[in-house]
Design brief:
This is TetR/AcrR family transcriptional regulator. The chain has 181 residues and is mainly alpha-helical. 74% of the residues lie in helices and 0% in strands.
């Protein structure tokens, strides 16, 4: 007979719970993320957390991989929906659309911290951009593409560092202005 008091194992639910807790804690400061802090927040045991992530580095990598996968999917869908959509505009639309998504914001605060201070993650981010967005060539169109990317990055950093307090309406005005380019 099965033990009725035994908690039902749901590995994917537990994994997402761990990631959400790490994002919430780490949004303040990535250094505050510990397995004990996650255990306290989720009610899971440290052993249960270690079952999913052997160390903090694996946890961070999963957060970054999920973020890049979501961004990749968004950009591919945007490109499919509009023949003229370039990666930089899709990226800008993503930044604007996701700016009110709490999990995304928390995760991006962590990614911002590690991209700024860890050369390996900076390279991962840069490689992803070169593959999916490009970096603009020297043509007039390439320069316009680069301008859109830099504006998107500026909004991304502004949101994640809590700078300028740019309203959704102003973000839409920025997007509309850049589309005219």
């Amino acid at each position: 007979m099965e033990n009725p008091y035994k908690r039902k194992k749901e590995p994917e639910v537990s994994k997402q719970l761990i990631l959400a807790a790490a994002a919430e804690i780490g949004a303040k400061d990535w250094h505050l993320v510990t397995f004990q802090a996650i255990a306290d927040k989720t009610g899971l045991s440290k052993g249960g957390i270690i079952h999913h992530f052997r160390n903090k580095e694996e946890l961070l990598k999963e957060l970054m991989d999920q973020s890049l996968a979501e961004l990749t999917e968004w950009i591919m869908e945007e490109k499919k929906s509009s023949v003229n959509e370039v990666g930089s505009l899709a990226y800008l639309r993503f930044i604007i659309d996701k700016s009110n998504d709490l999990f995304y914001r928390r995760t991006m605060k962590i990614v911002t911290q590690v991209v700024l201070f860890n050369v390996d993650y900076r390279k991962t981010w840069d490689d992803w951009f070169r593959l999916h967005i490009g970096n603009g060539d020297n043509s007039e169109q390439g320069i316009k593409h680069l301008i859109v990317m830099l504006v998107a990055d500026g909004l991304w950093y502004s949101d994640n560092l809590g700078l300028y307090d740019i309203s959704d309406q102003k973000k839409q005005q920025i997007l509309e202005t850049l589309i005219k380019l």
